[in-house]
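Thread: F-box/kelch-repeat protein, structure

OP (GT): Posting the sequence first so everyone is looking at the same thing. Length is 560 residues per the record. Can we get the structure tokens written out before standup tomorrow? I want them in the notebook alongside the other entries.
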Amino acid sequence: MFLSHHPFKISTFLDKTAQPPIHHPHKSPKLWQAPETCSSCPLPPSFPGSQITNQPLHLQGLHHLVIPFSAMNPTAGAEHLPTFSTSTKALKKAHLMASSPLLSPPSSSSSTSNYTSSITHAGSDQIISILYLLPVESIISFSMTCRRFRFLSSSDSLWESICRREWGSGSGGVDSLVASFPPQERPRLSWKRLYEKVVQLSSLSCRRLSCESGDFPDPRAAHSLIFFSGWLVLFGGGCDGGRHLDDTWVAYTGNGHNKVLCWKQVNSGIPSGRFGQTCTLISNYIVLFGGINDNGDRLNDTWIGEIIYDGHDDLRVTWRLLDVDVAPPPRGAHAASGVGDKRVVIHGGIGTFGLRLNDTWILYLLDDFRSGRWHQIMNVQSSPPSRSGHSLTWIAETYMVLFGGRGSRYEVLNDVWFLSIGDKNLEWKELKYELTDLPSEMPLPQVGHSATILPGSKILIYGGEDSSRRRKDDFWVLDIGAPQRSQTAGLTKTSSKLWKEVKIDGRHPQYRSFHGACTDQSRRYMYVFGGMIDGVLHPAEAYGLSFSGELYQLELVLQL
């Protein structure tokens, strides 16, 4: 997969003549207990390694050590250096150890003992510095070689560095996630435990948020919902009777613990009413493109909504039409996502005469968001087929993930595509499964779902509807990093790691499609508003179509 690093595998057949593990006949071995001691570990042996099938535990049986290419260059990846206190001299030595004959296969049995001795007698700072350069799977394998290495591999500073390396810092990264915990809990935070909870995410808690008496948004679907600095911003959509909406609303969420919100309308009439548009947050600007009005007209105008926040109790959004020379063809129900702080990507949608599109466009924002330039991506070897009602989610750097939608023959899809955007080229790649490696569970085809980003570049898929317009209420996590981590560690990629259905604790949102969803800056809290739901239309009829005006908050269950 194109997201993976290119690992440099060094075979380290450390000691083919090693003595068999020491067994204690009067003790029952426990799985994953630390194996027997190494030469520098004063602790007694405790585990017969033969009890773990195909798992090289002791250092003398560690057959593969995988080092990223960055480990071969002391200056590569310098921005991700660990935050624990390690001297520059020790760190340089660790890099040299990673790229020197120390990690090369021994040429003789005599050199084997010297090799093993060099590793086992290395200083703690040196070992931790080397561990920082390894994939997580290799660190876990290393921790099972002896008790000393298990202790070093559990270093809190090491796991803090791993979290920052894999999730980033600042907004949307580790710092925002930690800030979402109450102040009294932060000193007791275990970085390794936090990493485990995020990687093994299996449940969400959910509650319905109440609104204070007064004005609040009408029930709607196919609208836009974004999160900015503690505020929800809602625009447009369609409501009963196929009418479009042209209003902009804001509500303050606080630190995620507010149970009652107060909506406030800040604009109406500009931009013109529409549904099925996209709104993408770039810095403190909302980039709006396209949509469909209640006459059925497809639109292709581009708007900039500047978010003005004084840091207290007032947030305003001022809209203006963006000056562009050429624009993509009119459309609605397309997908969009931001790239960095100056670009927006759109794909597909429903064009004129109801035709579904498969084109990809990039908007370059210029002149401090006063003008822009649209550019169509051409001459791409392969790209997703025509569709609408799908999702496009930015996960890291210049990578995006496309999922689902309704195709040109009205079929509903559940395929996954990766989009890589370079400085001079763009590449689409489809995630394909081998017949022998089909996922044991994955979401059924769906359209009109939501896709929000979670810590660790996971994507949370919620709701949508199938080809018979039956709405859904299931939650799925797409873990793009799972095959990346496995491939980087030299392990066999298994598609079963890609998808996981998560359970909901608390009040479960109704079945819905074409709702709005977003996550806060910590990516721990998700907000869901509106959408099409099942409801009673007439007493003589069963269930039909209705619009929701409810607001839900979902929270990652991270009990540390």
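GT: Both are above now. Quick notes for whoever picks this up: The chain is about 15% helix and 35% strand. Residues 190-219+441-560 form one domain.
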